[in-house]
Design a protein that fits this description.
The protein is mainly α and 59 residues long. The protein is 51% helix and 7% strand. It contains one helix and two strands. The termini are far apart. Bound molecules: zinc ion. Zinc ion binds at residues 8, 10-11, 13, 26-28, 31.
Length: 59
């Protein structure tokens, strides 16, 4: 029997897929939500930065 483990990208904890199946590759819902939140924040941040850059060029 081989044990497959992954490291949670958020907290770097060792995750045993059997016990955290629905959150993989994260160890828990908490870490999954933190990571999703980061993605959402960055996705919204990029267009805002571009707008600011355009205004600076105009001046
Ligand atoms: Zn984690």
């Amino acid at each position: 029997m081989k044990e497959i483990t992954v490291n949670c990208p958020q907290c770097k904890k060792t995750v045993i897929p059997d016990t955290a199946d629905c959150y993989l590759p994260f160890c828990s819902e908490h870490c999954k939500m933190i990571d999703l939140g980061k993605w959402v924040t960055e996705l919204y941040r990029i267009p805002e930065v571009e707008k600011i850059e355009d205004k600076r060029k105009g001046n």
